[in-house]
Amino acid sequence: xxxxxxxxxxxxxxxxxxxxxxxxxxxxxxxxxxxxxxxxxxxxxxxxxxxxxxxxxxxxxxxxxxxxxxxxxxxxxxxxxxxxxxxxxxxxxxxxxxxxxxxxxxxxxxxxxxxxxxxxxxxxxxxxxxxxxxxxxxxxxxxxxxxxxxxxxxxxxxxxxxxxxxxxxxxxxxxxxxxxxxxxxxxxxxxxxxxxxxxxxxxxxxxxxxxxxxxxxxxxxxxxxxxxxxxxxxxxxxxxxxxxxxxxxxxxxxxxxxxxxxxxxxxxxxxxxxxxxxxxxxxxxxxxxxxxxxxxxxxxxxxxxxxxxxxxxxxxxxxxxxxxxxxxxxxxxxxxxxxxxxxxxxxxxxxxxxxxxxxxxxxxxxxxxxxxxxxxxxxxxxxxxxxxxxxxxxxxxxxxxxxxxxxxxxxxxxxxxxxxxxx
Length: 423
Hints:
Blueprint: H1 2-12, H2 17-38, H3 46-57, E1 67-68, E2 71-72, H4 77-89, H5 96-120, H6 135-144, H7 148-163, H8 167-178, H9 188-198, H10 201-219, H11 227-234, H12 254-258, H13 260-282, H14 290-297, H15 303-312, H16 315-331, H17 348-354, H18 359-374, H19 380-400
Antiparallel strand pairs: 1-2
Helix pairs in contact: 2-5, 3-4, 5-6, 5-7, 7-8, 7-16, 8-10, 9-10, 9-16, 13-16, 16-19, 17-18, 17-19, 18-19
């Protein structure tokens, strides 16, 4: 019985994450080296990235004229700047080994940050192995070199900064992530509610302007030449994905997948989930309805009232809001490709924990999802599993967060979250 109690303590006591994290990072360092040296690199988008940035480095500034082997450049300007640096560091993209080493360091750095975010919310140690066990995630980083790796890194920098209430750094990091790949726009509704509750209205608006200024700054080399061309390519919302590459909706027939009715249904579902989470979960720190919250933005709240609301925007609330928004967006996406797993792999353990699932159920759902994302090409069964696991996470975190702030003073939700954190 004593050993059983110790095992339970090891699995559930958040203090053990302090020594477990470096052990897992050390093991991951060895695993990354093994993957790089023993498993063949797979070319998908790297050469196209290099072809595109080489045109930028040669002086091309019209976004509509920059193309690569896979087609036109369809990512915002931060992507161009990041891969321009990689172009120079890898001898024009030819030295794949150096590129893989850079992505290994990137993977380990982001993993360290993710673990720090988990520790901030006092996640139990049994979740931490799930952060390092994904075969697909290692493939995305080390064998594919996708730009999603940088985007998810900026997302977790933003989460970590917001958890520490460093709002400017978090907003700049998030905006730069959007400037790398617009997939991060999925988190914008949640981030908006966080800032509007944690900060006075004018400061929240200033944060939004700061994000916009970041976008203008990174786009500046291209805007004077063809501003509409840049916007239409960097943020191409009308792009049509091919049925043969879909990971999530393979179990539907191609005619349904490509239909306008299906696209409208997904958009309606996305908006419906956002409204549900906003009104019942993301605005909980304010203790107001959505109409009341909107009306309150235009009124000058008493300082004490604002401080109380701000204190309720805890690290747990921040991480739950941002990651649930991303999960909602992925669930309602028209088409997911394998690299999109970068946004999900480090979110799923947290979302399943917040769903109040038993650890065995958490590991089961995680394993089914991991299996589904490793099936290539996707099948009816694997794609149904992808959608099913996402649905479990979205509905589960909504249900699990129902009691947040209801059993005790929410300002003490995180013990280390004290009055020194109020701005």
